[in-house]
Amino acid sequence: MSNTNNATTSNNKVFKTVIFRGGGYSPKPLAWVGLSVFISLILMLEVLTRAGIITSLTMPIPSDVFWTLIELWQSGLLFKHLAPSLSRLVVGSFIGCSFGICVGIIIGLFSLARAGLVPLVAAIFPIPKIALLPLFVIWFGIDETSKYALIALGTFTPTVVATYGAVDNVDRTLIRMGQSYSLSWMSIVRKIVLPGAMPGVLSGLRISLAIAIILLVAAEMLGAEYGIGAYILQAGSLYDLERLFAGVAILSVLGVLVSAMIGLLEKILLKWRV
What we know:
MetI-like fold
């Protein structure tokens, strides 16, 4: 008698290969597609601006922006502006995201913390953090501390919300299975809850770090001599569109690098996911 992989025709047996359909959802990386779309968009803007269809008063020629970036590199101004921006971004984001993950896990695990902290986070979360910048300058001064504080607060609240939501979404069947095997509370948290919540936490970090870049620019536009935000502000005040779009391009590349870093973390921390 033939198995399910066999098909019988009259007296002869014909063996057919059955396609495996249980591989789960695993999107294929097609990096060249995104690069092609980006290059096509730049080429289209180059043609439209050179043809005069898009006026130079509203959009600079992309090749001019590229040469402005080259000049920034050669003059050393790129690193002069980029170094303090990266420092502010890393320090502020690290403080906000690390505290946010810790508080989010506590809220997700303990009912008392959830009852006390969720209303507080819900009250702080909708406040535009940029609006608090003058207040932070009054509290911490116009130096680096106010910028760190703004970025930390801006990344803290979305990280908290994403983390305790991720903890809540961990499959309860796995937790009950761990309890049925008499695992300790700490073992369940370490082996089931935290790995199960990690995809949601990393997704929250993508959003938090994007917010951090936005707040970084806002903070540098107020009382910073060097930084990408200060560079964009100076270019805008002089109506120098090439320099302004060069600063925007740097921020765009920074966002892509941050996203790639989170993607690398996902590959390292989520190896168990099929």
